[in-house]
Amino acid sequence: MIVRVAERPTQDEATISFPIFTEEGAIQLIRISKSDPDLDATDARVINYKGADYLTTLSHLRLVCSDDGIHFYEPEGYPPLTGIGRLETFGIEDCRVTQIGDTYYLTFTSVSDNGVGVGLRTTKDWKHFEIHGMILPPHNKDCALFEEQINGRHYMLHRPSSVDIGGNYIWLCSSPDGIHWGNHQCLVKTTKGSWDSARVGGGAAPIKTDKGWLAIYHGANEKHQYCLGAFLLDLQDPSKVLAKTIDPIMMPLATYEQAGFFGNVVFTNGHIVQPDGDTVTVYYGASDEVVCAANFSINQILSQLSYTHV
Fold first, then answer.
1. Which residue, among 156, 162, 178, 266, has the nearest Cα to 217 in the 3D structure?
2. Which of 29, 241, 260, 310 qualifies as a FRET site for 229, CA 20 to 30 Å off?
């Protein structure tokens, strides 16, 4: 499993401090007085200082391993993945991993003062990585590749954003080689007055079932409460949304899901379908602070889909 590690210095009462990467890969520490009139620190995750946005933490990715899917350890000899170059100076985060053949595709959020886009690296052994740069420019994130080609093409979910026209919706694109992407189409939009009214975004790679591609996604409302839902795509034409859950399949209820660095959040980037073919272990972040796991029944999720609300 790939985990995101978000770091910052121990904070004091008078200042906010956070690290960034320089273009050369060194770490630079920025410290700002909380009384500075040019500081806007109303969001725990992003601050604005003198008109520029910064993340309050610097994220990188690490590989952890497990024999049972529950107890994880960090193996020796596997390097952490950190931001590289001008477009990753604020770090890399929220990685999704898809295996196609003998190659693992890592799509992740690349962050810098230029914006938030989607980066791609590939590996066969988790020790040597090919860097493909930013494959989807800002503002874009929540990117996950399908685990197999459909009619000779690769497919991928992603989430471009617009602050003026449109919204934070889930999109689909395709590629002949898994590197160069086009034919973008909007799939799933927010639902007014519902649990996913403010934004939606894809989770991990969609699960292939006999009824279609089952995608678990996150949604948030205007109060920034994040829940999980699901939708179903046609097996031969994933641009067709067949069904969607009306109510969430998971919402933040436990204490560690409601309180933390950024509370009332359950957010998934990865899952494993168990050998029985029905149980899916969903790994998810809670309150932007801890990593959790929960077992779902694929058939039960499919039974909650509505074919009349798409």
1. 266
2. 260
